[in-house]
Amino acid sequence: MLKSLFILFISLLGILKWVIEVHGESGFCSAPSSSSENKIILESESIYHKVTNPTLSPIHLRDLPGFTRSVYRKDHAVITPESHVFSPLPDWKNTLGAYLVTPAMGSHFVMYLAKMEGLSRSALPPQDVERFIFVLQGTVTVTNVSGTVKKLLVDSFVYLPANFEHSIQCETTASLVVFERRYASLQIHMPEQIVGSTDMQPLLDTPGEIFELRKLLPTSAAYDFNIHIMDFQPGEFLNVKEVHYNQHGLLLLEGQGIYRLGDNWYPVQAGDAIWMAPFVPQWYAALGKNRSRYLLYKDVNRNPLL
Ligand SMILES: *[C@@H]1O[C@H](CO)[C@@H](O)[C@H](O)[C@H]1NC(C)=O
Ligand SMILES: *[C@@H]1O[C@H](CO)[C@@H](O)[C@H](O)[C@H]1NC(C)=O
């Protein structure tokens, strides 16, 4: 009798452990919390929270030490969140950065994630380098030489011309994706500071294509790159199997699908970043149940011989 009670007790313990292990993963059993606390957590979740809180290790892969979906090839790279390495950004205050694309790969720009913490502040980019910042989570303020302060929420952005004095500050926490490149000047055209948000940008025509396109910067000659926001419903894909002279840095903000790069087909999901060298064959198909949205750097408006 005692023995069978003991066995029953041990089995119950086993089941309890299993419940904690399985459900603890998805947060059901993490620290007991009242529903009002849950609500606060949900409300503060940014629409791009999958980028800032990525699934580092899908459950069926968690016992595969050394496994990563990241790849680095001569003409492209896929950098997935389990590979991110953050370190203090030079000269920034209280900010960690992870460079995802740099000229060491062959690009003419850098793309990095910046995690700003309490009372953090940016440093200026090097001489003649322009900067674009997009907010993924939290709130930052931008102060420029006129002393004007602009507040940037999730989904908003600022473009800062080369040698334009400014400071980005954050009181609590914020995550940014940042692009910088040495400005290709045309003398007669002068770019200006641009502040905006994705939802304020008009949808543009995409002849022959089905995806929705917004451009965050003016298309005029003063700007030597643009940032595109591209939305695909599940099942939609690029019609043109693109091969072109422009280079790209891409951050998948929502959804999942298959990215073709050269002769490789990569399953990708929100949080993944991609580097595409000029002329690498590229194509995307959105899959799953939800919209795919990505943000894409593209160099434009300059003669390739310059
Ligand atoms: C500073 O920012 C404000 C607000 O965005 C803008 O109106 C002003 O033109 C900027 N100053 C300069 C020198 O660009
Ligand atoms: C898909 O979108 C629905 C409705 O917006 C949402 O409830 C669900 O969590 C999303 N699924 C994924 C996998 O993101």
From TrEMBL:
Q: Which segment of the chain is annotated as a signal peptide?
A: 1-24
Molecular function terms in GO for this entry?
Answer: ureidoglycine aminohydrolase activity
- The record places domain Cupin type-2 at 229-295
Keyword match Phosphoprotein: no
Task: Report the SUPFAM superfamilies cross-referenced here.
Answer: RmlC-like cupins (SSF51182)
- UniProt keyword Cytoplasm, yes or no: no
List UniProt keywords, sorted A-Z.
Hydrolase, Signal
The entry's protein name is: (S)-ureidoglycine aminohydrolase
- What is the species listed in this Swiss-Prot or TrEMBL entry? Thalictrum thalictroides
